[in-house]
Amino acid sequence: MAKNRFSSGDGPSQRQLRVGELIRRTLSDVLLRGDVHDPDLNKISITVGEVRTSPDLKVATVYVAPLGGTLGGESAEAMLAALRRHSGELRHHVAKAMTLKYAPDLRFRMDETFDRLDETRRLFSDETVQRDIAARDDDEGDDD
């Protein structure tokens, strides 16, 4: 298989990034307007954090989270189940907004970015870490 001479292969291509962002915006708008008629989806404000597409743009993995915090495990699973149940309808909305040859298959996953940020903040606020940071700053200040 020929390799694209402009691609370094280290990450998603510009086209993948553009298509992913277009899908993210489209899904955000559809969910915000409540175009999908499901009480389970309409009672939750859903944030579409990121969309990653496969190199052939036929599969899009959509990372979602409830707006304003995390739901319990059962509620998060119910949200994902509702999105998966209506993936065909959501795919139709995405296809109308795009001019691709194929509408991508949508796969939904929980976005855990915010949970990782909370953990990182907790680690940085730890007394031991603060002491190490202060010690490092003092060492760099002595070099002047």
Automatic annotation (TrEMBL):
One protein family per Pfam: RBFA
GO annotation, cellular component aspect: cytosol
Keyword field contains Translocase: no
Subcellular localization: Cytoplasm
Keywords of this entry: Cytoplasm, Ribosome biogenesis
NCBIfam families tied to this protein: PRK00521.2-5, rbfA
Function: One of several proteins that assist in the late maturation steps of the functional core of the 30S ribosomal subunit. Associates with free 30S ribosomal subunits (but not with 30S subunits that are part of 70S ribosomes or polysomes). Required for efficient processing of 16S rRNA. May interact with the 5'-terminal helix region of 16S rRNA.
Family assignment from sequence similarity: Belongs to the RbfA family.
Subunit structure: Monomer. Binds 30S ribosomal subunits, but not 50S ribosomal subunits or 70S ribosomes.
PANTHER family: RIBOSOME-BINDING FACTOR A, CHLOROPLASTIC-RELATED
Designated name of the protein: Ribosome-binding factor A
Species the sequence originates in: Rhodobacter capsulatus
Phylogenetic classification of the source organism: Bacteria, Pseudomonadati, Pseudomonadota, Alphaproteobacteria, Rhodobacterales
